Write a sequence for this structure.
């Protein structure tokens, strides 16, 4: 295509748009990246220039028991919540995709609502609800709420892999003599597996990063990693916090990459080209 | 999920404290006409149950309930209970008034009567800075006690500013990303997704570091000679705006991007070949087609913003806390659950209304994750 000669105004416009785009991307990423070098600071201050590089804050982190116990709590809650969320979310997604019934949209809206209801409402509501049941101040209560928060993610991601699902596959399986559960296990499951895994990752990161519900439902004995970080940021912002933050950023990058690869694989499996 | 939230809504209007501790007084108060000081029989019943409650150590919730309606009433009730004699000195009305003269006034009895109804609108009214006057009419509370409207107003203002900032930054960004070939656009989209996947706490901590007095922004401003001394950018409203915009920007960019990618570039070219200037083509051909994306992005950002708690708590000052903060404050710190539930209900209603608009306008199944 032969391009028309551009006016100065157009060139200026394009330049501005590029500048704005680059500035917006820098705004998104730079603050996160700034703290990575600071976590290797040899000095105790959170500002540049740094006197030198060292791993002392990571060493301190390694030796502090409270970080380890909060990490353990977060992993317990995250794993439990993810397992429950995947089972519930997958069942709901498959059910909703296969069945046709009135009020389906309304049901979907209710199932997705934990994603948009403010966390503090979920937290306060479950707090009042759990007190008579004795579930406050326990990891079990927190796990249950996190499962409810994670299930909609699984519902959405599994639902996305079911779009364009060829039902003849399950029919073929059934006609060849497989029981319904076997059909699910051997035909449906491998096809929706990428959705289940990305949903699980979403659910896990949600739980792993969740603080508001944890503040309401946990006591000093059940400190989770976000809770520990929150107190750290408020009371004594030290390079140790930035060391934790850096580790969390690395985990985020790994998870993001995994989800992106899974999404592409799922599209390829179903023969949809981007 | 639905059950606890329903329970919270009920808590916003429930009123069971007095009934649980003083059932006979509650019954008697409901038949009382509310004029002057109640009759001797009612006051005697109250005195009996007050002593029983003191001995059972179950006076706490009643005191709390009265204090929620009018600060100071808890100490009156508990002080009276402590000094209550076994037998009245003459009659109970005079005895109580002798211990604390408030018992000779009608207003505390009317407070007790209000606490004896099965439901109360006290908390919902309080959350809107309203109260009942002596005649039962609804009026606004005095300016010295009016705090909740400004909290609600502040919550909506912050959310609005953040939404507009996200749109202003996000629209050109999404436009550029949508017009680039996938080979360049995909890695850049990952840059948008990275903060989306990064812990909220990490991002808040990052902004505290970046915006602090010795932080890179202030260093740069000083080096450029734009300011003479470091500017306070964090632990105030500016910090809240910047950090929340950063946190919510991906929620604006992703819906815009998915809409813009579906618009064929040939539309703009056609408009230009028909004689429109590029700006005209953009305003009249491109912009109208992205309206759904703008609506989806703005609603999503606004809905998420009004519920924010952690980010303002970390990067804001005392005057920048939003409604969520006060729900947590009343639940955990002052144990005024009625008030917490009332504020929570207002927040919930606002969110659900916006969510319904979103579902209508955009469709639930369009709520995807990048």
């Amino acid at each position: 295509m032969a391009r028309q000669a551009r006016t100065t105004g157009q060139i200026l416009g394009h330049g501005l748009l590029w500048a704005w785009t680059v500035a917006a991307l820098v705004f998104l990423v730079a603050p996160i990246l700034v703290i990575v070098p600071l976590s290797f600071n040899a000095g105790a201050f959170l500002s540049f220039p740094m006197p030198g590089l060292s791993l002392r804050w990571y060493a301190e982190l390694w030796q502090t028991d409270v970080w380890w116990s909060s990490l353990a709590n977060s992993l317990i809650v995250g794993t439990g919540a993810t397992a429950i969320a995947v089972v519930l979310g997958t069942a709901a997604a498959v059910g909703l995709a296969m069945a046709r019934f009135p009020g389906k949209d309304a049901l979907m809206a209710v199932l997705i609502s934990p994603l948009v209801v403010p966390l503090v409402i979920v937290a306060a509501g479950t707090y009042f609800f759990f007190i008579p049941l004795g579930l406050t101040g326990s990891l079990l209560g927190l796990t249950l709420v996190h499962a409810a928060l994670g299930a909609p993610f699984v519902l959405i991601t599994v639902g996305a892999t079911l779009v364009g699902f060829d039902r003849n596959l399950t029919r073929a399986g059934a006609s060849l003599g497989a029981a319904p559960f076997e059909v699910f296990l051997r035909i449906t499951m491998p096809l929706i597996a990428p959705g289940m895994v990305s949903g699980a990752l979403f659910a896990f990161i949600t739980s792993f990063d969740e603080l508001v519900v944890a503040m309401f439902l946990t006591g000093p004995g059940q400190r989770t990693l976000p809770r520990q970080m929150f107190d750290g940021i408020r009371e004594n912002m030290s390079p140790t916090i930035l060391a934790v933050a850096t580790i969390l950023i690395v985990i985020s990058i790994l998870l993001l990459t995994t989800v992106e690869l899974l999404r592409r694989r799922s599209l390829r499996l179903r023969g949809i080209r981007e | 999920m639905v059950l606890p939230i329903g329970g919270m809504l009920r808590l916003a209007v429930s009123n069971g404290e007095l009934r649980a501790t003083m059932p006979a007084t509650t019954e008697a108060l409901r038949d009382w006409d509310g004029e002057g000081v109640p009759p001797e029989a009612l006051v005697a019943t109250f005195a009996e149950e007050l002593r029983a409650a003191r001995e059972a150590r179950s006076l706490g919730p009643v005191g709390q309930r009265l204090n929620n309606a009018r600060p100071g009433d808890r100490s009156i009730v508990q002080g009276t209970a402590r000094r209550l004699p076994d037998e009245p000195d003459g009659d109970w009305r005079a005895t109580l008034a002798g211990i604390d003269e408030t018992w000779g006034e009608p207003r505390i009895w009317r407070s007790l009567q209000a606490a004896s109804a099965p439901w109360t609108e006290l908390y919902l009214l309080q959350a809107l800075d309203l109260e009942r006057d002596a005649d039962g009419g609804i009026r606004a509370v005095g300016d010295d006690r009016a705090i909740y409207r400004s909290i609600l107003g502040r919550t909506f203002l912050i959310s609005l500013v953040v939404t507009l900032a996200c749109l202003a930054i996000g629209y050109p960004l999404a436009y550029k990303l949508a017009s680039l070939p996938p080979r360049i656009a995909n890695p850049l989209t990952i840059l948008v997704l990275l903060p989306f996947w990064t812990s909220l706490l990490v991002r808040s901590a990052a902004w505290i570091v970046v915006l602090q007095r010795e932080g890179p922004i202030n260093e740069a401003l000083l080096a450029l000679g734009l300011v003479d001394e470091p500017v306070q950018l964090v632990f105030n409203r500016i910090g809240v705006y910047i950090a929340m915009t950063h946190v919510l920007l991906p929620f604006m960019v992703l819906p815009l991007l998915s809409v813009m990618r579906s618009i064929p570039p040939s539309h703009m070219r056609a408009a230009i070949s028909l004689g429109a200037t590029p700006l005209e083509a953009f305003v009249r051909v491109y912009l109208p087609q992205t309206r759904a994306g703008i609506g989806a992005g703005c609603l999503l950002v606004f809905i998420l913003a009004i519920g924010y708690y952690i980010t303002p708590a970390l990067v804001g000052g005392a005057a920048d806390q939003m409604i969520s903060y006060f729900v947590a404050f009343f639940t955990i710190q002052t144990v005024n659950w009625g008030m917490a539930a009332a504020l929570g209900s207002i927040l919930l209603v606002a969110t659900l209304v916006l969510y319904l608009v979103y579902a209508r306008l955009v469709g639930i199944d369009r709520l995807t994750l990048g």
Notes: Chain A touches chain B through 75 residues (CB under 8 Å).
